[in-house]
Amino acid sequence: MGVLFSGVILSANVACAQAAKQLVGTWRLISATTEQGDKTTPTYGLNPKGILAVDANGRYAIVAMRADLPKVASGTRTTTISSENQALVAGSIAHFGSISLNKTGTVLIFKVENSTFPNWDGTEQKWPFNISREELRFAVPDASGGGIALTAWRRVN
Fold it and tell me: What is the pTM of this model?
């Protein structure tokens, strides 16, 4: 039994290490949806834009946004009007910090240093994921806009 258990732990550790290596790189957002109750909506519109960069030291930066964010009429981001602010805040998010995997290699753990959604500053976000060579998918169980966010990313070559 001990040998079998050790084999399972070694297999899990190898799988976790492999997933961690696969995560390193740059990823482009290809889809983002939010599920709230029985309703599914495109989180950042039909053609979302975004990037996730993960380095070999476990640091990350992520930005996601709508492709159709409005231009600011004044031409200065510090002098937006209320409706522009609403569209910009609801249509984008960015955060950075450190990233790791849980012991089984099935959950991404984002330790958020700072975010454009300040409620996440200093928090630990745990998001189930799966990864292949070219595609990364994860779920955000308690999304910043409410509900469950599901995202898909493609590796940038």
Answer: 0.85
The total number of residues written for the chain in this structure: 157
CA angle 66, 52, 103 (to 5 degrees): 130
**pLDDT at residue 32 above 60?**
yes
Q: DSSP letter string over 16-42?
A: HHHHHHHH-EEEEEEEEEEEETTEEEE
Q: Where are the alpha helices (DSSP H) in the chain?
A: 2-23, 82-90
Q: State whether residue 105 is helix, strand or coil.
A: coil
Write down the pLDDT at residue 157.
Answer: 73
117-150 pLDDT tens trace: 999 999 999 999 999 889 999 999 999 989 999 9
* Nearest CA-CA partner of 43 in 142, 137, 143: 143
Residue 114, SS3? strand
Q: Which amino acid is at 98?
A: S
Q: How far apart are CA 134 and CA 21, in angstroms?
A: 13
DSSP 3-state of 87: helix
**CA 103 to CA 78: how far, in whole Å?**
43
Would you say 22 and 131 are in contact if contact means Cβ atoms under 8 Å apart?
yes
